[in-house]
Amino acid sequence: APILPDVEKCTLSDALWDGSVGDHCCPPPFDLNITKDFEFKNYHNHVKKVRRPAHKAYEDQEWLNDYKRAIAIMKSLPMSDPRSHMQQARVHCAYCDGSYPVLGHNDTRLEVHASWLFPSFHRWYLYFYERILGKLINKPDFALPYWNWDHRDGMRIPEIFKEMDSPLFDPNRNTNHLDKMMNLSFVSDEEGSDVNEDDQYEENILLMRKAMVYPSVSDDPNKAELFLGSPYRAGDKMEGDVSGAGILERMPHNSVHVWTRSNTIKGNQDMGAFWSAGRDPLFYCHHSNVDRMWSLWTDVLHGGNFPKPEYDDYRNAYFYFYDENANPVRVYVRDSFDTERLGYKYEDQELPWMSITQ
Ligand code: C2O
């Protein structure tokens, strides 16, 4: 059976039992009687939100002002509003730190990482976050940026997130990495290596190639699961082991989180811990590129006909989110496969990892 969250039984997240947060991550209670299934509407398919690289944001001041204004409004909403910045961050906390028991399996807790749920959950999460931002500034076509870390020009923390007086700023980041070219396979601060930029760039591109191109040409019958993540069904236990994570989640998604998190405060905030990651506006920009990788895997590497796990347990898994009008909605994995159907796409950029030979 598909794995489903028992949202009515939301509890303090496991990771928070140590009191480090003094908070829980449950959203304002869901009224399942008024919760509707997601439906594709008229505006899907023809309103095209185009997500663009964050490093080019200064080329479009109007968009940049909209983005900052929307985030500022989101941050000013009260906690009681599920669209507020802190409640949006809690969505990640609730689904990732075990706030929800698995429906029908009270002894297990739902976790959206390290399995085939990862790509869809995060796509839906951004989908609603983006619609909420658009609603707050009354621009339904507002589109998120993406952190273009697979291109040399995007391999640093994007400037727009570093202006200290901006709503996009977050102090809980690694202060040694603010101007540094990223290491896309970064695992911990102890490495301390100082590779020169050209070599680092070559390594990064090779890593991207391994993540994106090699698996797509493999004839492994399970390559969809290799890329997206392993099966995860009702009753399965997820015990902090990440072996079920697909390539999309491991390379370089995880390293970018670790690269960005604070190097000084205890607890890996913000980007390095599930409960706090969504507090950094950069999280959504990072995930926009992770989502773009899924979309490139589909459209560029598999001509639109991407391999996906053909199981009902996968397709029929669902999550709940609050939409831009603060109404709860139930969304299915099966409706997450096509970004254009969801009304958005990614602006084309050069893909350096497609063209190198090695
Ligand atoms: Cu839910 Cu980047 O993680």
Radius of gyration: 19 Å
Overall helicity:
25-40%
Task: Tell me the CATH architecture.
Answer: Orthogonal Bundle
Helix-and-strand structural type: mainly alpha
Task: Count structural domains.
Answer: 1
Number of helical regions:
11
State the major sheet: 3 strands, mixed
Task: Tell me the span between the first and last alpha carbons.
Answer: 42 Å
Shape: globular
CATH homologous superfamily assignment: Di-copper center containing domain from catechol oxidase
Proportion in β-strands: 5-15%
State the order of secondary-structure elements, H for helix, E for strand. Answer: EHEHHEEHEHHHHHHEEEH
Mean pLDDT value: 91
Instruction: Kindly identify the CATH topology.
Output: di-copper center containing domain from catechol oxidase
Overview features:
35% helix; di-copper center containing domain from catechol oxidase; single chain; 11 helices; mainly alpha; 358 residues; 3-stranded parallel sheet; binds CU-O-CU linkage; 3-stranded mixed sheet
